[in-house]
């Protein structure tokens, strides 16, 4: 796959994610929901190196991937359990 195709696929996925946020959040809270979503990306990029650098030095690189996967899976399960049915359909 070329770089352009990968970029287009990535942008389509981002639009789909933002559309899902709109489905689950009341219209008056859309700005807050999108802001939290965008903040989460930056927060993850800032905190992940702090957590994984120490683990990589002490336990090895494989362990950092395992810890990152466990944190991501736990977060995904928590979000799945906390989100109720969509308030509206597009």
Question: Can you describe what's shown?
Answer:
With about 90 residues, this protein is an all-alpha fold. It has one domain (about 5-80). The chain contains 3 helices and no strands. Helix 2 (about 30-60) runs antiparallel to helix 3 (about 60-80). The longest helix has 30 residues, at about 30-60. The chain is extended, with a radius of gyration of 17 Å.
Short characterization:
By secondary structure, this protein is mainly α.
Oligomer: single chain
The count of strands amounts to 0
**Which spans of ≥5 residues are poorly predicted at pLDDT below 50?**
none
Helical content band: over 70%
Largest sheet geometry:
none
Strand percentage: under 5%
Task: Outline the fold blueprint.
Layout: H1 3-24, H2 30-59, H3 61-82
